[in-house]
What does this fold into?
Amino acid sequence: MLAGRTGALFVVMLIIVAASFTLALALGSADISFIEALQALRGEGPEKVQSLVTDLRLPRALTAFAVGGLLAVAGVLMQVLLRNPLAEPYILGSSGGAAVAALLAMSLGMGSLIVDFSAFGGAMAATLLVFAIAQGTGSWTPTRLLLTGVVLAAGFSAATTLLLALSPDQNLRGMLFWLMGDLSFAFDPARCLVLLAVLVVAGTLSARHLNVLSRGELQAAIVGLPVRTFRYLIFAAAALATAFSVTTVGVIGFIGLVVPHLVRLVAGSDHRVVLPASALAGGALLVIADTLARTIMAPRQLPVGALTAAIGVPLFLILMNRIRAERYQ
It folds into this structure.
């Protein structure tokens, strides 16, 4: 019965992913039919349509899927690490560090490659800083790590505001779009797709350990799990996924928070299901949000982070209200 339900869930998820890609390939400032989009993927049809689909929309949709999947997987891992359902990829300040470093590079007039390297370095440096401060002279606890991340994230936010205030006017639009998530130049999905595949496979194979650790460190230690080492691995994986996402498309919120909640509500708490299902759901959600960002006010494009927030906030409030109602029944 459980296997059948799990299989049905993944079939539905794959259908949603396929539908999101179909919409992403067909819709935009120049709409084409679904049949023309599928023909273009097979190398058929007019050359302009083939170029539009294969050179522009498909790489962008693949990047959106990979980044959404990475953010959702990072959210699952952070919630296990901190044993807090409100934890999400940016809670440790990695996005704030990436934003400060990238905006500093932009304000100095650096090229896109330097900006990418700066964002990646800033994300990893911020994550390591949070970890070092939280650990102090002893071992860190989930609560200490969470509070340290929140405080440093607030500091990074203040630094970001200061950089925006001091930046030249001609740079502000690009900076603001990057801060709110922008897939306009996201045409290289390979590295994010590879990392997503590695994390999903490794996380699914380690799902039994994730299940045990999510119930508490004492229980994990009793059954023989090397808690300290495994926490480091989870921490590194979540930080790497967040850093790759921020470097690729900028700051996009709510996916790592909402998607794991939604998947657990439907599929339960077994990470053999939660982790891969969250990757699929997060990827599909960001593909849909990016398609909406391209089409709502076409040919103008909206920042996709604003769309994910518009989708994520009411969805999260509905989930919280439902959970509270079930708790008091």
Remarks:
- The chain has a mean pLDDT of 81.
- The chain has one domain: 2-324.
- DSSP finds 14 helices and no strands in the chain.
- The longest helix spans residues 47-82.
